[in-house]
Specification:
Oligomer: single chain
Number of strands: 42
Radius of gyration: 28 Å
Length: 761
């Protein structure tokens, strides 16, 4: 009897403990999951998310006045023309249970829309001790007789207006928007969506109050890069919703769909940099970081040592000859990023690249001559598009190997506004396309002697539903895996001991093991996006700078060129016309961003007369390239750090929105005015634990700089030297001690430098 009494007492206290840890408040109809840092509340009848708190603050991130949506939605695939969307409201049954104090399992069952009685949707939410994050996974059971083509999970609706809201997204290099609800409500689709892997270079988003430094951190921990979409949307009631769309494979023989990754939702304190540093802990531990070509010394020194890229278009006389002039004046390594060398019209004649438009002999001779002057060139070749009006499209039966949508449609788009001819996306999962592109690359490198290929649209992944291609149908990670096979196949034809490499459009964590260099253009996004509400930020650099070589800039002092193979009726009268001098500060701004954010600098459409006609801007670029070259341990190999508190002036400047297409209806230039910083900064820590603060002024006046910082904030020695790195080298400014660093100086007009904090020996 004593034993039974003890058991009864233990059982009683166990129940009390369970009620404390796994609270279900019947009055509020909430199932509570909490750990002291984050608290989630779910409706105990439907499983809908009703409450989301963090930091021990009772103020929820969710608006209780908004109606909660289903935690998930999925598409039942009956046929290409019959896809049925269901959510939790379609389930007749729901239950929940706690596996332990930090794990909650929600189950929906008994769906009239599905014949299989074993069809269930199970969501598992986990917390970790002392963490502000929650980890969400979903499992759809009983799908052997009912394929599913889409699973939207998690869905977090009714997100409260945080006030002073900012939305930061790693769309390639990174973008940030102030007051995103305002811009969402004005957009046509009321939705911002980002594909991963693809334009979304990392798997995290930050929505936060910039003044209070508090917000919502959302992410996923997919180390295998399965295709998914992240989005924020708004409805007519100002209800903000976050969701992740997952794509199962339609040919899976499994009776269960369970993604091999979790969604992550939590609170965070700080800003987008805080979110980036949170993500960096996970991202740099993944295989793509460990296998980074740059980090593992697999990128050629010619690429690593590039002091300046020239991005020109056309025949060699308009590309390689100006590059020689540029190198002679800069007296540092210059490489060429070469468009419109090919024999076909741009953006409609791909992949009929050969022979070059100036002929093989002339092209090969010019490339060889440039290499003798230590100027390398990589040539443009789109790695997934085929022109549907080309002769080869029909002769090679390219349609059979093109991407197909869920209804069998091709992914066809018209980029060229002058010819109105379309391109169709080829499927990376087919042997035909990998062999075709490898053959083209072999010709460019081995027959024509170039230093490599720029693979346009490289950092993309497309869903393909063509069952004849041999890859999983629809969802999966086959696109990236086949891109890996493609680059391995291309590199197998490289001759040994040659400075040859592969670059690609965009930048993405998942492509770090496969590309040598990444073209990222957000530093000049005003030229193609105008005043869209988005601002560029170095989000990707804050996580992966020392793992990737990034370059690129639309920064030009000339009107962008017009392809000589396009219709003559739209050609500009003066193809090398100078842009108005009023856009000079835009050029400086783009170069300053590139410098302080750790990119290799690039100039577009360079011509030798610019050093006279636009001397101020060209002197700035040359000075910037020389300073960067003297600080490569920071600006090429350094790890991003938060910059010290600095206050600099702003000024409204003229902006040109002009690219080869944008703003080019006839000879017009689209322009606007925008408030811009007059000084830019970026802070980098070297491998030997020293700090470099890159500073680039674009002001025409002196700007005072006052810097105060403690060494323990950056893990530096308590004493050491403060140096100034400029185009002439490095010189001592002063010394510091007792862990206190103080710097007061006047930045001269358009001064570019690196303030180095060097530890004492």
């Amino acid at each position: 009897m004593k034993i039974h009494g003890v058991l009864i007492v233990k059982f009683f206290f166990g129940c009390v403990l369970c009620m404390t840890l796994f609270c279900c408040d019947n009055n509020m109809q909430s199932i509570i999951l909490k750990n002291g840092n984050i608290q989630l509340g779910f409706n105990n009848q439907t499983g809908q998310l009703q409450n989301f708190e963090a930091f021990g603050n009772s103020d929820s991130f969710l608006d209780s006045s908004q109606t909660s949506e289903s935690l998930w939605k999925l598409d039942l695939f009956h046929s290409p023309d019959d896809i049925e969307t269901i959510g939790s409201s379609n389930a007749a049954g729901f239950n929940y249970r706690f596996k332990n104090s930090n794990t909650l399992k929600l189950t929906w069952y008994d769906f009239k829309a599905v014949k299989n009685p074993d069809f269930k949707v199970v969501a598992t939410i986990k917390l970790r001790e002392s963490s502000f994050l929650s980890f969400w996974s979903i499992e759809v059971q009983g799908i052997d007789e009912q394929p599913i083509s889409k699973v939207v999970f998690p869905i977090v609706s009714g997100i409260k207006d945080l006030g002073d809201e900012n939305l930061a997204v790693p769309q390639w290099l990174g973008i940030k928007m102030k007051n995103p609800r305002v811009h969402l409500s004005k957009s046509k689709e009321k939705k911002f969506k980002w594909e991963y892997p693809g334009r979304m270079s990392m798997q995290c988003i930050a929505l936060y109050n910039e003044s209070k430094k508090i917000g919502i951190y959302t992410a996923s921990n997919d180390s295998l890069a399965y295709r998914k979409d992240f989005s924020y949307s708004i409805d007519s009631l100002n209800n903000l919703t976050y969701q992740v769309t997952n794509y199962p494979s339609l040919d899976s023989k499994s009776s269960t769909y369970a993604p091999k990754y979790e969604a992550i939702i939590g609170g965070f304190e700080g800003d987008w940099i805080s979110a980036a540093l949170q993500y960096r802990k996970w991202g740099t531990a993944q295989s793509w970081s460990k296998e980074s070509r740059f980090k593992n010394g697999l990128t050629p020194k010619m690429l690593e040592n590039t002091a300046l890229w020239e991005w020109n278009r056309g025949k060699s006389s308009n590309v390689l000859s100006p590059a020689k002039d540029l190198k002679e004046k800069l007296k540092l390594p210059v490489n060429v990023f070469w468009h419109w060398w090919h024999g076909c019209s741009y953006d409609d004649g791909f992949p009929e690249y050969f022979p070059p438009r100036e002929g093989k002999d002339s092209f090969v001779s010019a490339v060889k001559s440039a290499q003798e002057d230590s100027i390398g060139s990589i040539v443009y070749m789109n790695q997934m598009q085929w022109g549907t009006d080309t002769k080869s499209w029909k002769e090679e039966n390219a349609l059979a190997y093109a991407v197909k949508g869920i209804k069998g449609e091709t992914n066809t788009h018209t980029y060229n506004i002058f010819t109105d001819k379309s391109l169709t996306t080829m499927c990376m999962g087919t042997r035909f396309w990998k062999d075709k592109y490898t053959s083209l690359s072999d010709s460019a490198i081995n027959s024509y002697g170039t230093n490599g290929v720029y693979m346009d649209q490289a950092c993309f992944s497309i869903l393909c539903y063509d069952r004849s291609h041999g890859h999983s149908v629809g969802g999966g990670n086959y696109w990236l895996n086949n891109f890996a096979e493609l680059t391995e196949q291309i590199r197998s034809v490289f001759l040994e001991n040659r400075n040859v490499f592969l670059a690609g459009e965009g930048v993405s964590e998942a492509w770090l093991p496969y590309l040598d260099a990444f073209l990222t253009l957000q530093v000049s996004m005003e030229r193609y996006a105008g005043d869209s509400g988005w601002e560029p930020i170095p989000f990707f650099q804050a996580v992966y700078h020392q793992y990737a070589i990034t370059y690129g800039n639309y920064s030009s002092l000339l009107v962008p060129p017009y392809d000589s193979l396009w219709p003559k009726e739209y050609a500009p009268k003066d193809p090398l016309a100078l842009l108005d001098k009023k856009y000079g500060k835009q050029f400086l701004m783009e170069q300053a961003r590139s410098f302080v954010w750790g990119l290799q600098p690039t100039i577009s459409n360079y011509q030798s007369f610019l050093t006279l006609e636009r001397k101020k801007e060209m002197d700035y670029l040359f000075d910037l390239a020389k300073v960067r070259n003297n600080g490569l341990k920071y600006l090429s190999e350094g790890q991003f750090e938060r910059s010290p508190e600095l206050s600099f002036p702003k000024e409204t400047i003229d902006m040109s929105r002009l690219s080869i297409y944008a703003g080019k209806t006839g000879n017009t230039v689209s322009s606007f005015r925008k408030l811009a910083d007059m000084v830019y900064s970026g802070t980098w820590k070297s491998e030997d634990n020293q700090l470099g603060i890159a500073i680039a002024s674009i002001s025409d006046a002196d700007v005072p700089l006052s810097l105060r910082m403690n060494t323990d904030e950056y893990g530096l020695h308590s004493s050491g030297r403060i140096n100034m790195i400029d185009s002439n080298g490095k010189r001592l400014v002063t010394e510091y001690s007792n862990g206190k660093i103080q710097i007061d100086l006047n930045l001269k007009p358009r001064q570019v430098c690196i303030i180095e904090i060097e530890n004492a020996n």
